[in-house]
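pipeline/complex-builder :: batch 7 item 3
reading input block
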Amino acid sequence: MPLPGQARVPDAGAEAELIRRAQAGDRAAFDGLYALTAGRIFALLLRLCADREAAERLTQDTFVMAWQRLGTFRGQSRFTSWLHRIAVNFMLQDSRSQGRREARVIAVEDGVLRAAAGHSPSTDLRLDLERAIARLPDGARTALVLHDIEGYTHEEIAAMTGIAAGTVKSQLHRARRLLQERLSP
Amino acid sequence: MSVRLCLPFVLLALAAVPAAAQRNIGERFAAAPDGYVRVQNMAGTVKLIGWDRDSIAVSGTVHDTPAERFVVQRGAEGVTLGLWDTTVERAEPSHIEVRVPARSQVWIRTGSASVFVSGVSGGIDVTSVGGPIEIRDAPGEVFAESMTGSVILDVRTSMARAKTVTGAILVRGVIADATATSVSGNVLIEDATLDRGSFESVDGELRFVGRLRRGSTLDFVTHGGAVEFLLPAASDVEFRVSTYEGGLHSEFDVPVRTSVSKIKGSERTFRLGDGGARVNVRTFRGRVVIRSR
Amino acid sequence: MNHHLDDARLNDFADDLLPGPERARAEEHLASCSACRDTLTKVRQLRSALAALPLEIAPPPDVLADVRARIAAAGSGRMVDASWYARPRMLAAAAVLLVAVTAATTTLVIRAMERPPGAAVATYGAADDRPAALVAVQAMERSYEEAIAELQRALGDQQSGLSPETLRVLQENLGVIDRAVAEARAALHADPANDVLAALLRAGYERKLDVLRSVSSHGRARS
């Protein structure tokens, strides 16, 4: 689902070309793919993990796995969606193995704080919003980030996370309610 | 018309205009120990101090008009106060002092007003156009942004971000993760204990003075600005210095291995002591200088 | 309806997920219930604010270096690309890989290293002969330029609220950035696999976006 222009849309032709070459073993092409997509993956993981070190580590894991599995990418989905699935998998495995972990206040990069020009009437709330998202309970945060920020449907999120679509939906609604409580008036 | 006839009209006209006035403010009320406090004041000063009471005290002198009054708005999760002006850089200064519960989440926005924050252990987010910003003590995390004003951070925190266009930035204290970026402003990191640092200026200078913490990783990036280090003689640092057209000068007596890229520029990796900290420097044209204290 | 729309229905309504008849019933209720309309507005505003958050955040440079190191260390028999900006430990890993490669492939690798910079890395009969690194650099530049153009368009719709003096200073500094970007770009196009130049170019673009977003955050919509 397309979102208002916050993502820098990679040149589709360039991306396809790089994928083709990387699949043939060209590492410079893989570097190019990294350059085009790493920002998307890191942003996703930063918000999902609410933990900068974990996000860096899992971003690495995602791209290493992507290189190993690149041959299986057939263009049936968008490349970033394919990477997102790998990233979400790593995140879920990681949170399970780490056990219950208090969501620390996210160590956000400057980029996270920048509001879109002209999009939000109250650009002042951008930092509060990111912080409030980081403080959400894990399940609620996952649903919110994947649905309201990244634009996936409940069913897509269910497929990515193994959580039932109905649960995804109720977690999403809960997340929105919690955010509103924390951000008002 | 003669002057005598004019005068009454003039006096009437003056009386009819609502007067902008400077007045004292003073209010105190209960507040959540960790709620948010949002302050906006375009010109003058904002001084915000954390204290160990569950209340907020506002005082000062404000210059407001009926159209643009100083307001205090209390909500379920926090307080919003100040002059919410439509003009970012207004002329008439207001001086506002706020005492807040130490664990408050603080958010301040000004134009040319100077900002001082201390004693807050919640998160702090300050934005100004030209007003200088100074933040002290031990906030949860800090974001300070000014276009032309300076930013001084002397803090103990997990994360600090400072950003300016031309304002100078000073970073001190104990910070796990620090970032300071500017376009033409200089950045000085002095007597700071950092785990991770990222410092960038396009044409301003970056200067690091003091000891580098073992295990830390610091990145310095400029286009034309110089990057200078003033380190204790017995330092343990692994430097990786990459510059396209700039030069490297080191007062430390070390063997320098040079690997030159295909076309132009150089990357040099070398160690001082046992290389306990990692420093990466990248410049296009900025010269890199490493001096011994 | 006497009852308000429940949380789930309101959210589904905001997300356009209610089937036809349910949606109609919800609309009917909203027409006469200001409380539910308020709640719906709040959900929509939140969704709007969330959708406006940046989707990209650059990871620190170490991440790419470590990815490369891990890929090289795992070794896959694939061709080593000599245009990587080699760090000492990377060179060691690459050397190990070379030793493991068969004679026929070794010849290919040596030839690749001898290729002059800027030449095509691989020819697979593709129409695009640009080196992969240059493809990536140009794509990166295009997407930054799009983001900048979008911000500038949005700024055109705003009253800046900043003084002429401040605007002058900002303009000057945008000029500083533009000159730096131009220099880095020219150098990078001559040596597209140069990581350091790519990082410097990105840094320049990021500073420009920073400045424009700063200006935008102080703006107001034109009335």
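note: The longest helix of chain A spans residues 27-49.
queue -> next item
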